[in-house]
Amino acid sequence: MSELKDHYRRFYERGVNAVRSKADYSVYESVGEYYEKLVANAPSYYTRFDMAKKRAAFYKYKGIKNLHDNLIEFEGRFTAGGGKVIYAENAAGALNEIAFILSQHTRKQLLLSSEPILDEIGLEAYLSEKGQDYTMLSLHRLFAPVHPETSENINKGLIKKLQAEKFSGNTVNVLDLYKKQSLNKAYDDAISIMAADSLVADIGGVVFLDQTGELAIQNSFSKIQIVVAGIDRLISSVTELELLNALKSTHRYGDYLPWNQTIVRGPKQEGEIDGPEEMYVIWVDNGRSKIMGYKDQRTILNCIRCGACEALCPVFKFVKSKSGENGHENHDNPLACVALPIERGFDKYAYLSFACTLCGKCQEVCPVRIPLPELILFNRREAVGRGHGFGLNKSQVKTLKKMFLKRKAMESPYNKFVLKASGIKKEFGAQRVFPDFSQKSFHVLWSEASGIYTSQNK
Ligand code: SF4
Ligand code: SF4
């Protein structure tokens, strides 16, 4: 079986399993409802919402367009503050760099935050394979609206309820309790591997956003910090942060700004109370520069990872691989429909571009106006051009064209029978009932209703 067919089969099975499993289905539905409310409420935070979205899209576009200059500026400023910047061309390169840094230190405690970029490079699997112990900081999973592992009703009310019932207090107490009870180990002797939300060129700053304070703990206490970020996370100026963070927050958390926003400009300086003694930023390309070579699809790099498109997509809100499952395959979302075939090859992931119904919901909810369905169509064109098209084959299209161009052929009961019995029915899938043809076509019904004489209704 080709890799493409194998990936597609697993994707299909994940979808069928999610819909069959009532627990999964209801969690995904409640995540969708949660996001519906956030997206509906988002415009109320802005005086001119459309203008805010346009401006944010421009900021991201500018960051990518000037990537080269921004990278140089970021590196210059960050290293001047004592930090180290490393470029990794792909996941293996990033893992090698991490392994090298770890080998230089004798600290035992390794803390990881659970972030898509760390999944993308396959960090957990790599560490397990090497027999390296680590602790996942997973408090945010409890609160994260997109995480499918809890069957709780996911909303802000739940966060408040948990804080009141389980942690009896505010966020600070939650953090204290988490630190004492869950980790029960010394943070201040730890190495942290974290993901940055943005990198800001004009201040050489690394930005972390979170809703629980978990990353703030990692920032303050761990002595060695390794920050992993895709090259698309770079923006030009700190003045752009407020709007970008606000749009992410209103579309992900339902607050104007995330509860914790931390900007770190390098290791601890003299006179500072806490912060890392050493800090590394690993820029990961991993196919992103390939996307830049596709002028029609490169807008996908403007994404600010709010998660709204995935949670509201009628396909991808149900089709999901669990975190870490299938290693690098953990990318069932509208973004992956565009990015993955380009980054990792149409010969393996072309099916993703055909998994979309082109309903347009993702574009409607996107806070940075990414026209996802259009980009997916560009990918389909690319896939077909490379011989990896899904759906009807050329001879089926030819037969249908012949049939649809002549009314007589279209109305023929024989042709209707052939259509039903042919591969078209198979394409419809086993999960859906192939509809019966109406006795009378729309053309005939309309002619009868309007009293217009045609050869069909005489
Ligand atoms: S257009 Fe496609 S990717 Fe976007 S929400 Fe609809 S089905 Fe999902
Ligand atoms: S593409 Fe999706 S995740 Fe990215 S900003 Fe738009 S809605 Fe959010």
For the structure shown, list the relevant keywords.
four-stranded mixed beta sheet, 11% strand, Rossmann fold, binds iron/sulfur cluster, 458 residues, elongated, 10 strands, 51% helix, 3 domains, six-stranded parallel beta sheet, alpha/beta
Provide structural commentary.
With about 450 residues, the protein is α/β, with parallel strands linked by helices. It has 3 domains: about 5-35 and about 290-385, no CATH class; about 45-285, Rossmann fold (3-Layer(aba) Sandwich), CATH 3.40.50.10420; about 395-450, no CATH class. The protein is built from 23 helices and 10 strands. The chain has helices at about 5-20, 20-40, 50-65, 65-80, 90-105, 115-120, 125-130, 140-145, 155-165, 170-185, 215-220, 240-250, 290, 310, 335-345, 345-355, 360-365, 370-385, 395-405, 405-410, 415-420, 425-430, 440-450, and strands spanning about 85-90, 110-115, 135, 190-195, 200, 205-210, 225-230, 235, 260-265, 280-285. The strands form 2 sheets. The chain has a 6-stranded parallel β-sheet with strand order 1-10-7-4-2-3, sandwiched between helices. The protein has a 4-stranded mixed β-sheet with strand order 8-5-6-9. A hairpin with a 4-residue loop joins strand 5 (about 200) and strand 6. Helix 15 runs antiparallel to helix 16 and helix 15 runs parallel beside helix 18. The longest helix is centred in the first third of the chain and has 20 residues, at about 20-40. The termini are far apart. The structure holds iron/sulfur cluster (2 copies). One iron/sulfur cluster binds near residues 314 and 356.
